Amino acid sequence: MDKNQLKALAVKYCLEDLTDSSKPGTFLSNLIRRLELAPDFIPEITKEYLEKAKLKSLLRYACKQLSFDEYLENARSEQKKRVKQETIKAEKNRKRTLVKRLFQKYDLPVSSVEKADYQKLKTIIEKVDQGSRLDQKEIIWLMIARKGNYYGYYTHRLREKYHKNEADFFSMEFKKTKNPWDAINASSHFRKCGQSKKANTFLEKINDTILKTKKVNSAFKTTFGGVKRDLKEFDEALSFGNQAHILTPNNFRPCTLLGAVNMELGKYEEGQSWYEKARKLGAPQKLIDDDLRSILMRSDKSKRKDLAKFLYKNDPDRYSWVKNILNSSQSSKINSITDKIDSDAQ
Question: Are 196 and 230 in contact (CB under 8 A)?
């Protein structure tokens, strides 16, 4: 029989939804062809096949327990159930594939997710992907749920998307409220998702007249200075940092900004002086150390070694981790910790 004849037979027996029914040489297509040509002999292996394939009506018809009309009535019912089940299965597979792709989008292969964490993580990722905000409890859960990983499930890409959502939220809030703190928060989040140019454009349009207190004016200049630092406009970054420090001399944030900029300019003594001042004003030691790590990792080879030498000489115990960098043959090892740094430093 040719393909068209097999297809016609598959339709006749209400089996066209099963691919093998119209494919030449398959067990099922050979079976229904035999039923047409020699229906009186049904081997045991055929009965076993029909049992396993759950084609109960076809088995009964082949065993002469049903007339063909009775078979058709039952076969149509079976076919409807099969089609319905396949539709449900296809939809489940489609959703499973979409979730798999979504997880991969944020560098989280489904195979790496603990079974107990799957549903909660899926809900959080879908929420972030749709542009919704996360609360702090959800962020903390992401960071601590997957033990053995530095950031848990809170991958670099997931953090970037979270910060983008926050930046969009606060920039929209600022348009409505003209509250400078919304602008400052928006700028901070734009920086953390790698959109410092967008932050720069956003901040440039803000009128200084809304900065009515020293505290808000200092915070605005500090975040603007941080943006300028990201864009390597270091003179402007220093200017903003100095203005912010004059406005709020007891706030450590302008000091960390000035420390970072001076370090990046190669003015290590001055940079360290600003960091020490920040520490005395309450800056967490971890914030300063993470900032220095970040600067080190982003520096070119020669500057990286110079800064590593300066830090190690300044405090060999505290900066013992720079020893690998001092050994040029091991300098490539620093790449393994680059992704662990998500410094909030100014």
Answer: yes
Helix axes of 180-192 and 156-177: crossing angle, nearest 10 degrees: 160
> What is the pTM for the complete model shown?
0.76
Number of domains the chain is built from: 2
Could you say which of 97, 126, 160 is where a domain stops?
A: 97
Closest Cα partner for 198 from 186, 181, 180?
A: 186
* Backbone CA torsion sign across 308, 313, 317, 323: positive
Supply the CATH number for residue 269's domain: 1.25.40.10
From 54, 78, 97, the end of a domain falls on 97
Spell out the residues 6+ positions from residue 298 whose beta carbon is closer than 8 angstroms to its own.
none
Interacting residues of 319 by C-beta distance below 8 A, sequence separation 6+: 308, 311, 312
The H or E element containing residue 223 is helix 214-230
Q: How far lies 337's CA from each of 181, 198, 230, 298, in Å?
A: 33, 28, 20, 12
Cα–Cα dist 124/105, whole Å? 14
Where residue 80 falls (left for φ over 0; alpha for ψ -120 to 50; beta otherwise) is alpha
Largest CA distance in the chain: 102
Which residue range is the domain that position 329 belongs to? 211-346
Cα separations (Å) of 139 from 135, 200, 290, 300?
Answer: 7, 27, 20, 33
Q: Which amino acid is at 210?
A: I
DSSP letter for 67, please: -
Quick one: CA torsion of 76, 82, 86, 87, rounded to 10 degrees? 50
Q: Splitting the chain (346 residues) into consecutive groups of 10 residues, what average pLDDT does each group show?
A: 86 93 91 82 84 92 91 94 94 94 94 92 96 95 82 92 97 96 97 96 94 96 97 97 97 97 95 96 92 88 86 87 66 42 44
- Distance CA(170)–CA(242), nearest Å, equals 26
